[in-house]
Amino acid sequence: MFLDRPMAGFRKAKAHHPLCGLVLLFISMPAASQALRDNCGNPDSDISIAGCTRKIKLDTAELKSGFGSPNAAVAHLATDYDNRGIAYANKGLYDQAIADYSQAIALLPKTFPIAYFNRGLAYHNQERDDQAIADYTMAISLEPKGADPLELADAYDYRGNAYDQKNLYDQAIEDFTMAISLNPRLEGAYANRGNDYAHKALYDLAIADFGKVISLDSRDVASRYNQALAYQQKGLYDDSIADLSKVISLAPKFANAYDRRALAYAHKGLHDQAIADYRAALKLDPGLQSAKDALARLGAEP
Fold first, then answer.
1. Cβ(214)–Cβ(188) below 8 Å
2. pLDDT tens digits for 1-41?
3. Range 235-302 has CATH code 3.20.20.100
4. What is the b/e burial string over 19-33, where b = at least 16 CB atoms within 10 angstroms of the residue's CB?
5. Partner of 97 for a Cys bridge, out of 35, 85, 262, 287, CB 3.0 to 4.6 A?
6. 3-class state of residue 9 by DSSP
7. Within 13 Å, how many C-alpha atoms sit on residue 180's CB side?
8. Angstrom distances, CA of residue 194 to CA of 80, 166, 188, 233, 270
9. How far apart are alpha carbons 258 and 191 in whole angstroms?
10. Is 22 helix (H, G, I), strand (E, B) or coil?
11. Which of 121, 114, 154 minimizes the C-alpha distance to 20?
């Protein structure tokens, strides 16, 4: 089985807050900056929630008073809700986060794409992929001309991942390809597109994408492992063994790497090496049924 790349491995934008291992991408900002405002946006989620709640009360009163610039007041309030949504999301309180992002969107429905993006991430964490895709799409569509292409690349990459969750591999590949065109060094997009090519049995294309990731990061275990599996699908067992040996050197407790290298050895008729690797896999994962079954076929004891 090919390894899916975790969201935590995706590229971080220049300015971000973490969301359960995901990246909150600041695509575009309203007039108010995302700088800390009375602790609204503090890295400590509880402090941020308290600070943002105070700011929401103050900025709501300012907006209702009619004093000052109404556009600035709206921008301040939208930013308060967005920052509090981030803090809630960091605590895993996605319903509250979504409610705050929705408030921000209601205030600036056409000029605050980051709120759509952040709400999409919260939906994604709830496995509400259709809503996530809709919000990512809005974030992309509202992106102003001349925006940072690296940040827009991340938006396509995340939407591609949402399509992946629905097994919509063609749409996902289109988004990963767009992300790569905007940022040719976006490792996650190559890895994710490689996985999708593998799902579609397009192994040459998958190998090319996994190879690109490895060229950018020679210690990327998941992509090297996936490349090894793609080589096996093509019957290129020497190449697979070479990749799996590297994987084992980088992650010596990864039982599946021994299991798959044993399979490659077995295909080459190198039964002693295969048996040794199957036993190594079982030592690390005693419940690994594929290794147990393979040893039985080879007439060897676990």
1. no
2. 777 654 432 222 222 232 333 333 333 334 334 445 579 99
3. no
4. beebbbbbbbbbebe
5. 85
6. helix
7. 18
8. 39, 17, 10, 14, 29
9. 22
10. strand
11. 121
Cross-strand bridge partners of residue 23: 18
Q: Is residue 56 predicted with pLDDT exceeding 80? A: yes
- Both tokens of 90, joined, read 């960091």
Q: Which amino acid is at 50?
A: A
- Cα–Cα distance between 17 and 38 in angstroms, integer? 17
Q: Tell me the C-alpha distance between 49 and 28, whole Å.
A: 22
| Single-letter amino acid code for the residue at 55 | K
Give yes or no for a contact between 72 and 32, defined as CB atoms under 8 angstroms apart: yes
- Do the Cβ atoms of 218 and 246 come closer than 8 Å? no
Residue 165 contacts by C-beta under 8 Å, 6 or more apart in sequence? 124, 127, 129
Taking the C-alpha atoms of residue 257 and residue 232, their distance in angstroms, rounded to an integer, is: 13
Helices 129-142 and 113-125 cross at an angle (nearest 10°) of 160
Sequence-distant (6+) residues with CB within 8 A of 69 are none
DSSP conformation class of 37: B
Measured CA to CA, the distance from residue 72 to residue 11 in angstroms comes to 32
Collapsing DSSP to helix, strand or coil, 40 comes out as strand
List the end-to-end C-alpha distance of the chain, in Å, as a whole number. Answer: 22
Give CA–CA dist 20/269, Å, rounded. Answer: 45
Kindly list the distances between the CA atom of residue 106 and the CA atoms of 25, 100, 205, 239, in Å, as whole numbers in the listed order.
20, 10, 43, 54
Tens digit of pLDDT for each residue in 249-279? Answer: 999 999 999 999 999 999 999 999 999 999 9
Of the candidates 14, 8, 12, 9, the residue with the CA atom closest to the CA atom of residue 148: 14
Amino acid residing at 139: A
For residue 289 the two structure tokens come to 């049924």
pTM: 0.83
Contact (Cβ atoms closer than 8 angstroms) between residue 257 and residue 225? yes
What type of residue is 267? H
